[in-house]
Amino acid sequence: MSDAQKTEPAKGKVKDKRSKHQIRLDKEAEEAKRMWDLWMKYKNLILFAFSDKPITQQHEKMFLEVTGELQKQQRILLKFVPRDIDFGAESITKLMKSSVSIAHLRDLPESDKKNLYTNWHNIYIHMTRMVGAMRFIAEGYVHKVKAKAEVDIRGMKKATKGAGVPPHKNPTVITLVIVVGFVLVFLLSYLGVLTIPGM
Q1: What are the contacts of 26-30 at 24+ separation with CB within 8 A?
Q2: How many distinct structural domains can be found in the chain?
Q3: What is the pTM (predicted TM-score) of this model?
Q4: 75-92 pLDDT tens trace
């Protein structure tokens, strides 16, 4: 939020000039970025597990905290992230179930370690796109597709009826193409350099 969006009342309190709708959009973009930050922390723990450094109780505690926060944050995102913006929710759930502890990850065969890191990276790509999309929406793009949690039985039936619509006439497909086309512009300014540290 820029300084232009705030005013300084007589009593010295900062007043937010944004609308409630804009505040909500900015908050959602922040929640998306928080998920991305947690995912990077999880990556660092994976790399630590794959090293030969001694594992302490503090490391295991941190691992449990980060994985717990990831699962909590995932539930938060499912409430508002449009269902056509995939951030790898199902893959995250599967990966969390297979990640019991740092010691467990260290004892995995090399092939399993490679697969785990590959899965992490694939989710990272989806998550990075999602962060850019949510920032894009917060900047003013109107996205009409609802979040997965908002879809009721009636909405699911309507989606089924429209399954035969050609891609070029399907509003969901068109919307997704537009979002993907502009997301990279916001990623460069919002996340900075997108290379993965330590790779």
Answers
A1: 26/1, 26/138, 28/80, 28/81, 28/134, 28/137, 28/138, 29/131, 29/134, 29/135, 29/137, 29/138
A2: 1
A3: 0.68
A4: 999 999 998 899 999 999
